[in-house]
Amino acid sequence: MTAQGHVLVCGSKSRNVLQLDGEGKKKLATLATLRNSKYCPHPIFYNKSAACIIVGLANTYSYTILVFKVQ
């Protein structure tokens, strides 16, 4: 959950990262779309002190991360 109370979710099959309202019912934004990527978003973490969202990306052979600065 972000500092604003939003819920962050990632879909390994849809390969996207979404921002939802605090109840998890309404989509507020698509933060990332990885449809043409070999990676699937897996874990997601909001770091309040650094004001960033960290998304882990995985495939069969490797792992990497994406870091998004937020306001």
Describe how the helices and strands are arranged.
Layout: E1 7-11, E2 16-20, E3 27-33, E4 40-47, E5 52-58, E6 63-69
Antiparallel strand pairs: 1-2, 2-3, 4-5, 5-6
Protein architecture, described:
By secondary structure, the protein is mainly β. The protein has one domain. Helices cover 0% and strands 55% of the residues. It is built from no helices and 6 strands. The chain has a 3-stranded antiparallel β-sheet, with no helix packed on it. Strands 4-5-6 form a 3-stranded antiparallel β-sheet, with no helix packed on it. Strand 2 (16-20) and strand 3 form a beta hairpin. The radius of gyration is 12 Å and the shape is globular. It starts with 6 loop residues before the first strand and ends with a strand. The relative contact order is 0.22. The mean pLDDT is 88.
Helix content: under 10%
Structural class per helix/strand content? mainly beta
Q: N- to C-terminal separation? A: 14 Å
* DSSP strand content: over 45%
CA gyration radius, whole angstroms:
12 Å
What spatial form do the alpha-carbon principal axes imply? globular
Largest sheet: 3 strands, antiparallel
